[in-house]
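--- STAGE predict ---
source: upstream dedup step, 1 unique chain passed
mode: sequence only
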Amino acid sequence: MKWTTYKSVEEFKKVVMQDLLQDRIQNGLIIRDIERNIKEINNEKIRMGTVTLDGKLLIISLQILPKQMHYAVMQKDNSKALEFFVDNLAKLSWTIDGVMSDEQSSKEFVKLYNQKFKNKLVFLETNIVYKLETLLKIKLPKGKLRKATEKDLYYLPHWRAHWCQEIKSDKFETKVEYQINNVTKYLDTFYVWECSGVPVSVVDIQRTSPTSAKVGGVYTPPHFRRKGYASAAVWHLCNKYKNKFEDFMLYAFADDPAPNRCYQKIGFKEVSRDSIYKISC
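--- STAGE serialize ---
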């Protein structure tokens, strides 16, 4: 087996993209991060690596520091490749704060990682990966979906910070100061659901391949909840882009029944589950 690291995101893309697109739903976050950072060269905050055997990709990994690492196992039940992968992370001293991948391989990865590194990873939560099968006709509250503008920046970073707290994101993502820069940078991906001219919910859409998109960042302030605003925002966003993208995917915590019911009612179907592990405090 061979371990290869990359300095150019564009070079990395040429090597891995065709394989990633074979399962563009499961690998959506890796594909998104490659496209977002395609111009980066020699950026020490971007760690890219592959494990290959006879030219065939076995594992693809990408980490945008300080965020958690994402990796894709291209051939299932490949324990030797995972062990080889972790051994090379140890040789490079690539310690990580967290990791997210499919349930089976992530459990095995963490066992191997914790044998090599002092900072131990512990289970945090399971995410259900959903794909929109059919956009169903459902009863929705009155209102309208509109693209976010600079006029929304007085509250959107606060909403985003609160959302990150609720989904147990890394601490730096829960800071309003960080979200001011983050929301401003990706403002064109956000959409706001308004009721009688008042913003009541927000959602964002991110291209994850030429034909697919990830719906995420769904947040409604507590005092506006249980009125169907989040469902309306997601439904109308998917309806708006249904002729542009073939596939829509999103994540939901497995232990949070309300969002899961919401997405299933809209027409999303579970395709897989990912596990998230973080370093123990």
